[in-house]
Amino acid sequence: MKVWTIKTAATLAMGTLMFFTSLKAQQVWPGDVNNNGVVNNIDVLFWAYAEGAQGPSRPVVSGDWAPQDPSEPWPETFPGGLNFAFADCDGNGNINSADLNIIKDNYWKSQDMVMLDEYFNGIVGQDPQLLLSTADQITEPGAEEPVGLSLGDEQMQIDSFFGMAFTLKFDTLNIKPTTNMGGNAGVQLDLVNPSWIHDPAGMGTNRSEIFMEVRDDNATAQVAIYRKQNAGATSGSGPVAEFTIV
Predict the structure, then answer these.
(1) Beta bridge partners of 236
(2) Separation between Cα atoms, residue 136 and residue 127, nearest integer Å
(3) pLDDT tens digit string along 101-148?
(4) Which residues, 6+ apart, have CB-to-CB distance to 91 below 8 Å?
(5) Structure confidence by residue, pLDDT tens digits, 6-36
(6) Distance between CA atoms of residues 54 and 85, nearest Å
(7) Domain that holds residue 182
(8) Smaller CB count within 10 Å for the chain: N or C?
(9) Which CATH number do you get for residue 129?
């Protein structure tokens, strides 16, 4: 139970995972914010980056998983050129929490053609590490096991952090099963408070949020940690969150 595999994509000022797509050449699939053909935790990062923006509404306002005719192009684009209109999941011209709910409703749904999210392997000693750590090497059945999550260290600081997404694979024989999204009896995740990415009491706008989807059928937990609207990017290193595993 002490071995975890993490696949991670960090967005430092949204510098990675960009897709070059013409809005007029594509239809919008609600929830597929990065327009790669599947709805997952990467779409949560893109939505968070665009949260609060406003633009033209779509001809039909709907969050149903079906191809939707696009609106006129929005004035803002993601770094890389993808238009903000893809983040307007319900098509009403506002990017807000209602669009995140549509991502949740359409989670794991996919089109016929899927472009896999790109993950770039970091270089040890040159890139910050995302680490899981636990104090106990042996856990009794039914006991809670806290697992710390940290990003970077004093020698490898994070500059302009906006968010990150990763997939945690676990052994279903040793983890209490669940089918709930966003929190469950077997795997829970909470932000360290206060931390360099989240200190609402001490620093006002320094706030982050967690999205988590746990799937027992394929033994994965997909996570996105992102900056709240108007929080902006932040810099630092060290502990960011803690898993509790039963």
Answers:
(1) 158
(2) 27
(3) 999 999 999 998 888 877 777 888 888 999 988 877 777 776 777 889
(4) 28, 30, 57, 58, 60, 61, 62, 63, 68, 71
(5) 444 444 333 334 344 455 558 999 999 999 9
(6) 9
(7) 5-12+125-245
(8) N
(9) 2.60.40
In angstroms, what is the C-alpha Rg of the chain? 18
DSSP 74-121: PS-B-TTS-BGGGG-TT-SSB-SHHHHHHHHHTTT-B-SS-PPPP-PP
Closest CA to 70 of 48, 95, 88, 52: 88
Query: What is the value of pTM for the model shown?
Result: 0.84
Closest by CA to 4, choosing from 240, 224, 221, 242, is 221
Task: State how many domains the chain has.
Answer: 2
Identity at 228, one-letter amino acid code: K
pLDDT tens digits along 62-111: 999 999 999 999 999 998 899 999 999 999 999 999 999 999 999 999 99
User: How far from 171 is each of 36, 154, 220, CA to CA, in Å?
Assistant: 29, 32, 9
Examine the domain organization and report whether 132 and 233 are in the same domain.
Answer: yes
Same domain, residue pair 95 and 134: no
